[in-house]
Amino acid sequence: MARDPKYDILFEPIQLGPKTMKNRFYQIPHCNGFGSEKPLSQAYFRAMKAEGGYGACCTEYCSISPESDDTHRVSARLWDDEDVKNLSVMCEMLHEHGALAAAELWYGGPHAPCMESRSVPRGPSQIPSDFEYLTYAKEMDKDDIREVQQLYVDAAIRAREAGFDIVYVYGSHSYLPQQFLTPYYNKRTDEYGGSFENRARFWRETIEQVREAVGDDTAIAVRMSCDMFMGDAGTQLERDCLPFVELCDEIVDVWDINVSGISEWGEDATPSRFYPSGRLLPWQEAVKKVAKKPVLGVGRFTSPDLMVDAINSGKLDIIATCRPSISDPFLPKKIDEGRLDDIRECIGCNICISRWEIGGPPVICTQNATAGEEYRRGWHPEKFDTAENADNDVLVVGAGPAGMECAMILGKRGMRRVHLVEVADDMGGIMRWIPQLPGLGEWARVVNYRKIQIDKLRNVEFIPGTTLDANGVKEYGAEIVVIATGGYWVGDGLNGCTHDTIPGADASQPWCLTPEQIMRDGKDVPGARVVVIDNDGYFMGVSLAEKLASEGKKVTLMTHLGHIAPYMHFTLEAPNQHRKLHKLGVDIVTSHMPSRIEQGAVVATHVFDEDGHEQTWEADAVVLVTQRRSNEALYRELKDSVGFDTLRGEGITACYRIGDCEAPRLIADCVFSGHRLAREIDSENPEVPKPFIRERRVIERELAAV
Amino acid sequence: MSETLIVAEHLRGAMRDVTGELVTAARLLGNPVAVAVIARDPSRLEVTYEGVDEIVGVPVEQAEFENDVYQHALEALIAERQPEVVLLGFTVNSMGYGPAVAAKLDLGFASDVHGLALDGEAVIATRSFYGGKVDAELEFPEGRPVLLLIRPTAFAPAPSGGSPSTSAFSVEVPSSRARHVDFREAAVGDVDITTADFLLSIGRGVGEQDAIPQFERLAEKLGAVLSVSRPLVDAGWMPNARQVGQSGKTVKPKVYLALGISGAVQHLAGMKTSGTIIAVNTDPEAAIFNVAHYGAVADLFDVADELEKLS
Amino acid sequence: MKIVVCVKQVAVLGDEVEFTDDARDVDPDFLDASLNEWDSYATEEALRIRENAGSDGDEIVVVSVGDGDVEPAMRRCLAMGADRATRIDHSGSRDPITIARLLAPVVNAESPDLVFCGVQSSDAVQAATGTALAELLDLARVAVVTRIELDTGARRATVHRELEGGLVDVTEVDTPALLTIQTGINQPRYATLRAIKQAEQEPIQVVAAGEEGEPAYRVRRMFAPPKGEGAELLDGSAADIARRIAGIVQERLK
Asked: Residue B256 in contact with residue B278, Cβ under 8 Å?
């Protein structure tokens, strides 16, 4: 189908200083765990988006010097000519697809822990980082300022050498240039501190010098946070940012506008739990009103209508996307081809970001199992080769995230027939009820996307409302069987803290409940006082606490961990979730583990109390978010009771497990699990993942010589 | 004499609206219009439409529709009156005997017709194919009557009035092989947006979750079932069961009133074959207007408030 | 008892459409095929009657009209559990009266106790083949059936006929009879892969089409319906718009 003319504006070229960008789709700088040291993973990852129609793609933050070393996290680096070589692959591949390449030159100041380089970062004032532990900067004197500005210039020259078309002087997320602009970081009393003019001086001078060095043929981008949400201490739109835009508009080619500082950058990389698309538009619009140069910015845009509206209403010139481009690198192409229902929309879960926060494993995505696998596994999100055993019929039992993904990819790989059999009357598995938790509605896109795709696949049939036992599977007539029966929250309190059940925990009692019982089965939560026991540490415990508290219950959220939901720190959801629970009056009890539960009370001890003093919380209801287990009964029956040999006698050549049914895991990992099996269904042993390419230095010598 | 013959539809002693719509359709063909009323006491059923030339009462024993009765009566009427065109409603009743008459008498035939025209002397009927996605003009064999089942609501009802002549036509009807026993109201089950006649559908335009109860009330007042577009399900404000669209339910109500729905393709795929689509949106470019029969560029809350006052 | 189920393989049109050169039909490249949804309910109903009240020797026979390309739909019915299938070889006019004429002698030769058709087909929506066929077979008939209670001994059935607006007409019908089956009367079963594979191996009897006569209509021209132009603009104040909407709603729901 052809593109709807109302989206034409998204495909109009735009001038960025000396460079022309072919359309309005811009992949904002974002991390992927590859940096300069996994150069092919880096290049293939970015190039996939260029192939998918992006007009420009950026590196993640790109360190300009060993003084700005973010190890344990992974950034790109342009420290020397070897880095130039490595990043030049990315530039070349982007150029092959007609996309511009951008490098986000980064100097972290006190936020750079320099754990690898053991260098000392320099900063405007000597105040320890509000983001890192025990990280101080050397307070810069005038010589330091000149030297650091020269580091920017040298890195910009290297960037141009590598083939980058756009270089950033990056300030957002509380990095060095923005630190100078911000009283929270800048306590100087010389001409680089105090008044707006003084605070702006470092950034402006740096932009000027970079421009002088490379500006004749390289576009200069500035990324600025327009509100740090910290009152007078932070950067403010009217006081600092709009004047800065006016001050520097002449020497900047494109403005990249966002909000937040580093310690709460979830205000920028907004989880869908708290913010819809386009949350940053008011700030972007304010800048657009004063800037003569193009303005770009993120907003987790997945809908072309919102994109067009942002441009037509004068809020943005260029639609920048980070997470939506991970979720669907082909977003621009699908809009261009009128295939809107093929767009794999970002769900805003921020599991991608969690990997950077953890410290550098490759990026993952709940929606796009191929994200990060472009080079090392050779996976393409839109291309599927016909399986060598495509003449087989496949039965997939269970239509949760893993089963749906597996059936969909098997369908795309041309298997003769794929039957996706589900007990419930619709697809989704756990994703039928998880999106009903407070704020998680967009997570339903995991189901929506796959439902639409499966519906289009003539060789995949969805069979709802059908329970298969081992005999049913045996008789079904498939050559390949995939068991994707999911998992469940235990009802006896078994948990990862004590590795035992909790005495008295029994979800068959009316006052004791599991997440599924509440969300899926509609089991009534009795009484006014509820204790939610969370030994899981991600979204389930806090979400149920929030839900029950907003329904008027008096909720105590108890965890053995030092913080509630520690994983939500990585997804940037933690701060606002804390605010929400606080506002709802949820009583938070950390470092406590129940020693027993009885009707009416939870008895717990402090995990570090060697004497084991017990404390009692009165409770009309107890919600057990202790651990999950696999629903593996069907698989075990097939393997242990019927036996794979018998199955082979029935023509079933293989029986696999995927997703939670094998071991409970992240939704993203369930999807990956289903995808991986389908991608490798014709490998020698599909049960075991094929080796992937590990980008590493290999020593060329005989082992015997060691 | 060439004429267009209509068979009136009535149920439990009341004339059905489709009869008036058939009169409008019949008048497009130019010939005199006769309306046959097949009933136990035809005179008790009023046919008061402008443009009707003759009302033919056909008294029968049966008070309610039975297909053998209607088939026999219509066959006799055709034999007697030699109409050029016979129009019935595309209704459950007509489905039970219209095609049988056409098969028996070798008539030109089409059903679910929503457009009628004359090309010279020839009747041209327009109807949809392939799930309503395309239209086709049909022509019919020459020299025989054409029997058409007309889609309800495709034509406006004829205005009331007229002073037709009346006649009676008696027909001997054999005993029915399928006999009416009783009427029952269908059981009211859970909310099922796929079977509702009237959907009030709301979308992103409602802005916030707190606004939803207002539309639940409005739906109840209007006698509509509330459905939603995907952003509201995405936001967790409404359950999936209420979602219209490709990833939700496909619906085909008689009336689809869309408030604040822009009309993403996935949404349109789920509702565009609805009988009558009315859309209210502040954006005159909204895609929903491409499939709507009636559109208003207005604030949905203003319109909702006014609707609530009316009902 | 023998039940004949008349089924159709329907054409499913995607979002894009192009027409044949003579503009009388859709270019077949733009069409997908599947078993008509209504016919899957009709098949299921036949299977249920056999399962609930059947006896040895009961038979469910699927009959369809078309060329070899329509056999996948018939095989789907076999996979669901129908016993055998007969295809009436035909590639001409597909108007419902012609199809009924072609079906009649073949169905008649089966001397069925019941004949089921779907109420309508999703691609043509004529809702006519079944009723026309009943006439040609001289069978009692009821259209748009949502429930069937058979009284085999008394040679009759009590059926529900679903009228517009949800009203149910309870009708007593003599058997043998032809019933056109509405969706929702049951939940059609799914065929397992084994059943699908077995059905692929089963023979389909092919019989030559009889006299088809003159078609009940001919397509003069097929075209994409005019887009959007139909939207009549409601203007004025919010109160004016609301009044118009209320009027339209009232009119359409009557």
From this structure: yes
